[in-house]
Amino acid sequence: MKGLQVTDLHVSVDSKPILRGIDLTVAKGEVHAMMGPNGSGKSTLSLTIMGHPRYRVESGSVVLDGEDLLALPVDERAKRGLFLAFQYPSAIPGVSVANFLRTAINARRARADTKNDMPIPQFRKLLKERMELLEVEDSFLSRSVNDGFSGGEKKRLEMLQMHMFQPTMAVLDETDSGLDIDALKVVAHGIEMLRGPEVGILLITHYERILKFVQPDRVHVLVDGRIVRTGGRELAAELEAKGYDFIRDELYAGKA
Amino acid sequence: MLLPLDRDDVERLVRSRGEPDWLRESRLRALERYTPETWPTGLEEEWRRFPLTDLPRTLFIREPAGSDPPSEYSSVPVAAAHRGVVFDRWIDAVGDHPDLVRRWLDDGDGIASHAAFRALNGAAFGHGSTFLYVPAGVEVELPLHVHKRWNRSESAIVFRTVVVAERGSSVTFVEELSSEGGSSGRLALPGLEVHLGEGARVRYVRIQRFADDVWDLGSQRYRSGRDSSLASFNVLVGSGRTKMGLASDIEGNGAEVKLYGLVAAAGHQRIDVNSLQKVDGKGSSSDLLYLSALYDFAKAVYYGVIRVEPTSSGTGSYQECRNMLLSDKAGADPIPVLEILTNDVARCGHAATAGALEESELFYVMSRGFDRASAERLLVRGFFQRVINNIPDVQMRARVVDALAPRIGRIADIDAEIAA
Ligand SMILES: Nc1ncnc2c1ncn2[C@@H]1O[C@H](COP(=O)(O)OP(=O)(O)OP(=O)(O)O)[C@@H](O)[C@H]1O
Ligand SMILES: [Mg+2]
Question: CB contact, 8 Å: A96 with chain B?
Fold first, then answer.
């Protein structure tokens, strides 16, 4: 199957179970939204898919385009077309955005046998185009990656990276958080521009507002490390109106 | 235990180099200062972490045939030469400009516990020594460069570099040191003295890439006149052991001193730097920034003192030493000391850190398609950028990056001008 398949995934951190059996399929061409309260395990899921060493997979599988992701190191996952927009991106002092992007693109293109660098003019053209798309200012390029960036600037840079790397499976961890309405529209536009028959998108969010601009194919609700509801767009609206408590109440009714 | 050096050794050296009397006397004065009391006991703050037990003792001083190591001096631009700039081997400068060299033979002090090594240098400096003189008002635009390579040998590397920038002059000077390895242990005693006259501007870059049989016990002394501006860069990459005593004196108002260091060490290297920043005058500043990347079993020690003199006013000074540990066996010991002897200070502070790369940063970089080794290289290179950024000239920067490459590796494109 083309796309991302997560099957019965159990993950722990410091031997504390966080994800307790996740099943999720995001096919190419689809956009899935994942919602859930703080601490429910959304970032754990995204970081596990990307391969963060702190998140220990106890059981289950993560497969991308038929290939077992869990067997691959982080960078290989990236080279297979997986991209994670971090909820909390790291700063890289001393490395400019422009150089980082170019070095990363070339690292992804590197082959054992030949040098396969993207020629600078082509890189510039791509960069210029994507910067316009995401309304990123030129002054961004010479600044160090995320170093002293505002929350919103960091999110924009995550989007710019996504568009430069052109992934086939993108996981966006709260890329819409902390944005003003204009920035939100830009990010939504960026997601829509990535959307296409060859790309799958998992959009982790707290807010229904982004879903006004990005129409998801499916909406999932994650609570306490499990997907407890899956539905269409209307599920997001229901959550927005009622909060997560109604789901918890349903879930734990009769257990008390 | 004192390294053996006596009057006969010095006399022999003077004869073999055909030196004039005033130079001979200067050497003998230095020899007199070289006494058992000056030898570190190991109890001094500076020497506690740097045992001298295995110090190579094959010191001296048979000048091998051919007076200098194969050194490549860049030529002085014709216009500057016409205006009196001297940039030459010491031995030639003594022949051609004896009065000038003589004026700048400085017996000044530095860090007290390093006195023995300064005295040794003053008595025994030989091939590889350099004299650079820039007369008042002359601005040398292109950087001057010398690469000194020592061939394989057991004998010590003892040389002296004197830089004089007279009032209102300006110069940039890169001194690159390398040696062929393979000895059973080889001592290096590089001595550097930099004099900045009123309003002078000096950029000095030392690139140290000796082989790992070398123990480098160097001294550096900077004297900054009023309104002068100094930036010194020590790029310490190659040596088995390095112990450097760096002293900076400010001798006038409004002087600006910037002392930068990059340490990239691997294997069993041990790099130990002592600094003494004397801050004086009105509105002067002295800022030190040393960054280390330590691999394998390498160890970096930094012990440095800022002394804000009682006669100073409104000065600013800072000492910052940061160490990145790239292996669990690597270690760093940064110790800053502030002695503030006046209440009239604009700013004075220090920062010292030592730690491994953040796992979350590595993960972030790797998630963009870098393997672990490349991600590490990228982070180290970025870490060093704060110093590299300040190197004034593109070609000099390239030389520094080249020198660092054997330790920190290379990231293509990181310096490329690619912003559209
Ligand atoms: N590195 C970690 N070390 C310790 N505990 C962790 C770590 N990462 C996650 N956890 C714990 O796992 C649980 C899930 O955290 P996670 O970050 O996945 O939640 P989230 O749904 O992304 O929350 P938020 O909406 O606040 O971003 C929390 O209880 C959190 O404290
Ligand atoms: Mg989260």
Answer: yes
Instruction: Give B366's strand partners.
Output: none
Tell me the ligand closest to A45's alpha carbon: 1
Q: Using one digit for the tens of pLDDT, what is the confidence trace for B212-247? A: 999 999 999 999 999 999 999 999 999 999 999 999
The domain containing residue A200 runs over which residues? Answer: 3-94+152-252
Cβ <8 Å between B382 and A86:
no
In this structure, the number of other CB atoms found within 10 A of the CB of residue A237 comes to 14
Q: Does residue A107 belong to the interface with chain B, where contact is any CB pair within 8 Å?
A: yes
Residue A116 lies in a domain: no
How many whole angstroms separate alpha carbon B40 and alpha carbon B119?
13
Q: By mean pLDDT, which of A217-221, B51-55, B354-358 is the weakest?
A: B51-55
Q: Which residues contact B166 (CB under 8 A, 6 or more apart)?
A: B133, B134, B135, B136, B137, B138, B197, B200
Q: Where are the alpha helices (DSSP H) in B88-216?
A: 90-96, 98-103, 115-124
Measured CA to CA, the distance from residue B166 to residue B228 in angstroms comes to: 10
Q: Which residues of B touch A103 (CB under 8 A)?
A: 370, 378, 411-414
Q: How far apart are CA A155 and CA B64, in angstroms?
A: 64
Where are the domains positioned within chain B?
Answer: 7-251, 357-420
Q: Within 10 A of A132 (CB to CB), how many other CB atoms are there?
A: 9
Q: Does B382 touch chain A (CB under 8 A)?
A: yes
Domain count, chain A: 1
The residue to which tokens 């000056």 are assigned? B38
List the CATH number of the domain containing A44.
Answer: 3.40.50.300
Which residue type occupies B185? Answer: G
Report which ligand 1 atom has the smallest distance to the Cα of A40.
21
pLDDT digits (tens, 9 = 90+) for A221-256: 999 999 998 998 888 888 878 877 777 777 776 554
| Separation between Cα atoms, residue B187 and residue B191, nearest integer Å | 13
Cβ–Cβ gap B382/A78 under 8 Å: no
Tokens 């310490």 appear where? B236
